């Protein structure tokens, strides 16, 4: 059965489920033609098996010049050259050099030292919420500040400057803004990181940016700023949205929340289930084809673009039993919410720790936590590359 090329599906049937079209495609043609906004054709991959294959194979590129945007038309003059250090948009061997340097900064010692600090941050914010009354916007009072504080501490970013990078990073992830506005946001956050990195060279501290100067003295300030920019955005956006959306989901599934309350040991597995079920990187990952290759019986040609749907892969019944069901007792979940292959999320363990501590303390502190609005009134980030809730009113 051949399915006619269609644009990337974006309309969600519920706040927590990916577009229905993904299921049909995965069942009928898991590697299907994708209609691009510029009139060209690409590929959409929706099965778990094929998504992992594409993301792990070196014949697929992460460099922007090899990829057509599936959400909007980008004129040739609007395309950007990948700056040195922005390794998420690089292929081997350049990617490996930068990633290895950052992997050396995510030491076991540093991560262990952060755990009690994360716990204290969480407790402090819950204290503040409780002292302020019996209701709050969970996003602004809890879900966003916690990962922002953590990444600020890791990078040595003054927390009082968080509003600037939070606002600009949110703009960078929007897929419905003009390219000129995206570029302006990018330049703003690069200036912010550039000033910070320059200060670290003069006065180094016990943070990752300072550690990069020591790890490789040949790195330029611009390279470190790009690496820091990537960590700054990835380090708070995904975790913040998982905390807000995950709480919303659990409040809408009281039977699952009751299981967590009754058996706290389920929490690590429950976090994996939330990651799988929600898949907040909602428009998938993009790859450019570097050489002709066959995937799922379809012939990809050099120069074409492939979109790997993480959300569809994480709901694939060939890999997960009853994938449409949220099950916090699920014991085996090799999901792809953090990606796969050489670009798999570098800070995923830190994100897991943040979520485990935050969810545990939140639900312990407020046993009667409930949504303080109709579910349909919750404003969602439907046009952001990282999906989540903008505002989540709760009461206790």
Task: Give an account of the 3D structure.
It is a single chain. The longest helix has about 30 residues, at about 220-250. The strands form three sheets. Strands 1-2-8-5-3 form a five-stranded mixed sheet. The N and C termini lie far apart (about 50 Å). The protein is of the alpha+beta class and about 400 residues long. Strand 1 and strand 2 form a beta hairpin. The mean pLDDT is about 95. The chain is globular, with a radius of gyration of 21 Å. The chain has helices at about 20-30, 50-55, 95-105, 110-130, 140-145, 145-155, 160-170, 180-200, 210-215, 220-250, 255-260, 265-280, 310-315, 350-365; strands at about 30-35, 40-45, 60, 135, 285-290, 295, 300, 305-310, 370, 395. It contains 14 helices and ten strands.
């Amino acid at each position: 059965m051949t399915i006619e090329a269609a644009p990337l599906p974006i309309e969600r049937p519920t706040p927590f489920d990916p577009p229905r079209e993904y299921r049909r495609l995965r069942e009928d043609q898991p590697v299907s033609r994708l209609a691009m906004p510029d009139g060209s054709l690409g590929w959409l991959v929706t099965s778990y098996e094929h998504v992992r294959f594409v993301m792990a194979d070196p014949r697929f590129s992460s460099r922007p010049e090899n990829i057509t945007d599936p959400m909007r038309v980008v004129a040739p003059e609007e395309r950007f050259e990948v700056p040195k250090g922005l390794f998420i948009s690089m292929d081997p061997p350049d990617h490996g050099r930068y990633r290895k340097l950052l992997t050396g900064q995510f030491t076991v010692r540093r991560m262990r030292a952060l755990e009690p600090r994360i716990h204290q941050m969480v407790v402090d914010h819950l204290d503040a919420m409780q002292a302020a009354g019996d209701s709050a916007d969970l996003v602004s009072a809890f879900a966003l500040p916690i990962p922002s504080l953590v990444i600020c501490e890791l990078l040595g970013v003054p927390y009082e400057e968080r509003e600037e990078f939070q606002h600009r990073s949110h703009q960078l992830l929007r897929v419905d803004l003009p390219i000129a506005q995206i570029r302006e946001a990018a330049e703003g956050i690069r200036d912010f990181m550039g000033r910070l990195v320059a200060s670290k060279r003069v006065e180094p501290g016990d943070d990752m940016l300072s550690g990069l100067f020591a790890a490789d003295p040949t790195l330029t300030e611009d390279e470190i700023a790009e690496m820091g920019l990537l960590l700054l955005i990835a380090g708070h956006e995904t975790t913040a949205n998982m905390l807000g959306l995950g709480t919303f989901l659990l409040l809408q599934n009281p039977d699952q929340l009751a299981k967590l309350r009754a058996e706290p040991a389920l929490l690590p597995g429950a976090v994996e289930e939330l990651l799988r079920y929600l898949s907040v990187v909602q428009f998938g990952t993009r790859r450019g084809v570097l050489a002709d290759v066959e995937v799922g019986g379809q012939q990809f040609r050099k120069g074409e673009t492939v979109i790997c749907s993480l959300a569809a892969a994480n709901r694939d019944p060939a890999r997960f039993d009853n994938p449409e069901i949220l099950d916090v007792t699920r014991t085996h979940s090799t999901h792809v919410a953090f990606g796969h292959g050489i670009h798999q999320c570098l800070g995923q363990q830190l994100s897991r720790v943040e979520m485990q501590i935050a969810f545990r303390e939140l639900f312990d502190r407020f046993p009667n936590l409930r949504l303080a609005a109709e579910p349909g009134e919750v404003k969602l980030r439907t046009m952001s590359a990282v999906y989540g809730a903008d505002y989540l009113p709760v009461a206790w």
